[in-house]
Write a structure and sequence with these properties.
mainly alpha, 231 residues, globular, 10 helices
Length: 231
């Protein structure tokens, strides 16, 4: 049995790029399912302050964050956390670059919203502590954790071995954008996702660390704490 397990994992180590694409497809399908369930069970894609909603988010954190990243990448391909970009060296600088990345992502969203003709500001409000914690669990436990480990931590370095770092950043950003198929509502949303991928990929390449894009991505999604998200 031990020999079979070893051979089984050897395939994933030998076909890391192909396995990465498969993981992206699986993740995209899981996200579509999550979105459908979210809307049908809770009436909209807004965050609900309730125990059922908290358990719903926790379920997806376990399935995606632990299942896809810990199981699918770290265990099956034997990719270390350091290889993915998790490093302590230069931590404060990486956090600072993450703050810059958040600002760039926010500007990017505004620009594409204007291009779509949406100039109305979102409805803002003062959230409860419970809502803040729920959004934080979602923001840093799902999009920031899963997408940064998958796209910038795992895929981008594999691409960089075959091409220049700048071409690798563009390619991963294109894949990141296409992966939003079925999740984005407007054609221009793919443009916004592509530029987001460029920003996060640049942070990963510049810092050789996943901390900066993780912080930027998580803070970006934290904006959902203070605004009403339409159905």
């Amino acid at each position: 049995m031990a020999i079979k397990t070893k051979d089984y994992r050897t395939w994933f180590q030998s076909n890391r790029f192909l396995w990465g694409i498969i993981l992206i497809v699986v993740f995209s399908l899981m996200r579509i399912v999550q979105t459908i369930m979210w809307r049908q069970w809770f009436g909209s894609l807004d965050f609900q302050v309730s125990i059922p909603f908290a358990l719903f988010l926790l379920l997806w954190v376990v399935l995606m964050s632990i299942g896809l990243i810990v199981g699918g990448i770290v265990w099956l391909t034997r990719t270390s956390w350091r290889e993915l970009g998790w490093k302590r060296r230069g931590l404060l600088k990486s956090v600072g670059m993450g703050l810059l990345g958040y600002v760039l992502m926010y500007i990017n969203v505004i620009v594409w919203a204007v291009l779509k003709g949406n100039t109305n500001p979102p409805e803002m409000f003062s959230p409860s502590l419970t809502r803040l914690l729920l959004v934080a669990m979602f923001a840093f436990g799902l999009p920031a954790w899963v997408e940064e480990n998958l796209y910038r931590g795992y895929l981008q370095p594999l691409l960089a071995r075959k091409m220049s770092i700048w071409v690798a950043i563009v390619v991963q950003a294109a894949i990141f954008s296409v992966a939003h198929l079925g999740y984005s509502r407007h054609l221009l949303d793919f443009g916004s996702a592509f530029v987001t991928g460029l920003i996060l990929g640049w942070l990963r390449g510049r810092e050789s660390s996943l901390v900066a894009p993780f912080v930027a991505h998580g803070l970006f999604w934290m904006m959902g704490t203070f605004m009403v998200i339409s159905p």
